[in-house]
Amino acid sequence: MRPIVASLPDAVVLRLPLRAKRAVLYRRAHGRWPARRPRTFTEKVNWRVVHDRRPLIGQLGDKLAMKAYAADVFPAVQVPRVLWTGTDVAELPGAGLPGRWVLKSNHGTMRVHIGTGAPDVAELRRITAGWLDEPLFRDRGEWVYSQARRLLLVEEFIGEDGAVPADHKFLVFGGRVRLVQVDTGRFGAHRRRLYDPDWRPVTVAEAVAPGPVTPPPAALAEMTKVAEALGAAFDFVRVDLFDVDGAVWFGELTPYPGGGLDAFDPVLDEQLGRWWQLPPRSAVRAGQQVVG
User: φ, ψ for residue 223 (rounded to 5)?
Assistant: First the structure.
């Protein structure tokens, strides 16, 4: 029966109950079914998608809520200012935007446009077509995105001299940083390099081309402090930060890296899974989050 289920057409998979849908998607991505008792990192991400309904997790699909959380938990961290929110980019010419700005969806992922100068409404409508109808919950069952306000937002650009800063993604387990993922060239020649907390390179098989080994950022100690403070309330969360001229800037908090469906080095999958201690299932049935 299972091989038949795994080969179902996409239109049928979309209509499956959440647990079955996620099992099929997981098998397609990783070539195996998720274990009944999750052990690896990707299996535990899948478990969280299916089972974890705590309000703490529910806010992590909403970028505006994440910003508020970061500012409340660690007031010293720099949080990019929000310059506009709405659903119609036709409002942007009157929003008084600076020379460089960033347009995002509030309730999705990988929906980013770096703007320069006066907004071109026609071009922005083309770019953002479909952004308000984010399918991550409908298609992949990623619950947190169903809890977020469906909005577009513009925030200040924080790079130096117009350059997009490297994205430092801290994997925090039980309040402790275990791995740092550095992504560069995210809007061009994308590269990635992993480091342990002492900035020793970690070599794994990655779908993304490896980036160069670089010295630690000037603010690494402060970034680690911020990441561990923001991750302290979670059994696991990825904390995305930027070092801009020695200052630590907040990016976002990610509960489902890659949705648990991206290609993943099997050795690292096992290791990260050992570091992640899931809460009991009885503790994650807290009802749905309402973002204020």
Answer: -60, -40
Q: Beta strands 191-195 and 176-184: pairing type?
A: antiparallel
Nearest partner of 42 among 27, 54, 64, 52, judged by Cα:
27
SS3 85: strand
Question: Which of these three, 157, 181, 202, is where a domain ends?
Answer: 157
Instruction: Give the number of other Cβ atoms within 10 Å of residue 212's Cβ.
Output: 9
Please compute the mean of the pLDDT values over residues 102-130 and round it to a whole number.
Answer: 94
How far apart (Å, rounded) are the C-alpha atoms in residues 175 and 232? 4
28 inside domain = no
Confidence of residue 170 (pLDDT cuts 50, 70, 90): very high
Spatial contact of 183 and 169, defined as CB atoms under 8 Å apart: yes
Cα-based angle 140, 103, 95 (whole degrees, multiple of 5): 140
Residue 128 token pair: 């953002």
Cα 69 to Cα 234: distance, rounded to the nearest angstrom = 13
In which element (H, E) is residue 122 found?
A: helix 121-127
3-class DSSP state of 132: helix
Same domain as 278, residue 218 = yes
Tell me the pTM. 0.92
Which pairing describes strands 247-254 and 152-156: parallel, antiparallel, or unpaired?
A: unpaired
Q: Coil, strand or helix: which one is 178? A: strand
User: Residue 190 and residue 211: Cα distance in Å, rounded?
Assistant: 8
